[in-house]
């Protein structure tokens, strides 16, 4: 999932746009190693009788996209390339239309599928100071406050009603770190690491 995370002392949910604001020191999307893809939504259901689909929105990136829009649907290792010819932004969801899809039943097999686009389609958006895209967080090494590698990496970012969670993994276990500045310090993209504060306490949990 690629979303805008607000990483601040007093966290409040903000409109998402596939990027992250890092804290003082310093938004599933699942990128490939080469042409990185970011997830901008998931198929929720069909909509109406003419083949439209309702999409659960993963951020405000849709505001910066235009049609025709080439997307990849991904579900259970199945992939499908489609071109969205129209979309409508609603308060809590997106409606999409694909010229090749004329019947609502088409979307039954793709319910819950991720809708992914090439990162280059949003990478040109202007970032505010200390903001970056979520795919840039994935696979970062986890360091402790002494800037020592812990052997963990950020393998996934997930969302809760209160805040976002970094899932940090090694070969043996996973540790879930709230993406709040009280727990996460420096995020250094050039050196490929982020700092988790009070790391020893997380290991003991």
Could you walk me through the main structural features you see in this protein, from its secondary elements to its overall organization?
There is one protein chain. The strands form three sheets. Strands 3-4-7-6-5-8 form a six-stranded antiparallel barrel. The chain has a six-stranded mixed β-sheet with strand order 13-12-11-10-15-14. The chain starts with a strand and ends with a helix. The chain is mainly β and 205 residues long. The chain contains two helices and 15 strands. Residues 1-17 and 22-34 have low confidence and may be disordered. It has two domains: 5-32 and 129-204, Roll (SH3 type barrels); 37-118, RimM (Elongation Factor Tu (Ef-tu), domain 3), CATH 2.40.30.60. Strand 5 (69-75) and strand 6 form a beta hairpin. It is elongated. It has helices at 120-123, 199-204; strands spanning 5-6, 19-21, 37-47, 52-57, 69-75, 78-89, 94-98, 114-118, 131-133, 141-143, 149-159, 164-169, 174-178, 184-188, 193-196.
């Amino acid at each position: 999932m690629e979303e805008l995370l607000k990483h601040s002392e007093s966290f409040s949910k903000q409109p998402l746009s596939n990027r992250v604001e890092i804290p003082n020191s310093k938004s599933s999307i699942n990128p490939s190693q080469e042409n990185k893809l970011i997830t901008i939504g998931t198929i929720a259901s069909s909509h109406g009788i003419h083949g439209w689909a309702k999409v659960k929105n993963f951020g405000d990136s849709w505001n910066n996209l235009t049609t025709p829009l080439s997307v990849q649907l991904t579900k259970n290792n199945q992939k499908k390339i489609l071109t969205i010819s129209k979309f409508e932004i609603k308060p809590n969801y997106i409606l999409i239309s694909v010229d090749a899809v004329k019947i609502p039943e088409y979307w039954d097999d793709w319910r819950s599928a991720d809708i992914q686009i090439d990162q280059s389609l949003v990478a040109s958006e202007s970032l505010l100071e200390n903001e970056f895209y979520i795919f840039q967080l994935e696979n970062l090494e986890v360091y402790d406050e002494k800037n020592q590698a812990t052997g963990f990496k950020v393998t996934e970012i997930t969302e809760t009603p209160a805040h976002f969670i970094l899932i940090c993994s090694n070969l043996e276990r996973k540790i879930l770190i709230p993406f709040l500045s009280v727990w996460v310090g420096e995020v250094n993209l050039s050196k490929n690491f982020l700092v988790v504060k009070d790391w020893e306490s997380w290991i003991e949990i």
